[in-house]
Write a structure and sequence with these properties.
Structural class: mainly alpha
Mean pLDDT: 85
Strand content: under 5%
Order of helices and strands: HHHH
Low-confidence stretches: 4-12
Number of domains: 1
Helix content: over 70%
């Protein structure tokens, strides 16, 4: 019975291990990306309007996030670099709409909000979008058929 259980465990484990590894890398990359985007936004916000600061910080972080996910989270995938970044471009539009919407909505009610306060609104909305990014990247762009 123990032998059968070990075989069964060995059959299940590769998929479970791959998902666990993917989620672990996603969390590490996602947290780093959220912090980087928040800091870059806060820095840029001192010299530019919210929409421009968000666009620039999101653009930089999206490129870095996509490449980190391609190399670490979804390593072994046959998806080409350009294909991965083009697919992430669509996700960039979604991220930009959600994060800009959150900041603009906040500024509508707090017209004198500081860049730090805006950043506190931006970070959770970016974190939410990051979860959507991971799901789409895993299910569509880097699906098992590409690995």
């Amino acid at each position: 019975m123990r032998r059968l259980s070990a075989r069964h465990s060995a059959l299940i484990r590769p998929g479970r291990t791959a998902l666990t590894r993917d989620v672990l890398w996603f969390v590490v990359i996602g947290v780093a990306s959220t912090v980087a985007q928040a800091l870059l936004y806060w820095f840029l916000r001192h010299w530019s309007p919210p929409i421009l600061a968000n666009f620039a910080s999101l653009l930089v972080v999206t490129v870095l996030n996509t490449e980190a996910n391609r190399r670490l989270t979804f390593r072994g995938s046959t998806v080409r670099v350009l294909q991965a970044h083009l697919a992430a471009g669509g996700l960039f539009v979604l991220a930009y709409l959600v994060t800009s919407g959150a900041v603009l909505f906040f500024r509508h009610y707090r017209t004198t909000a500081s860049p730090a306060a805006e950043t506190l609104v931006l970070a959770p909305s970016f974190a939410l979008v990051t979860v959507v990014r991971f799901t789409v990247l895993r299910m569509v762009v880097f699906s098992r058929r590409h690995r």
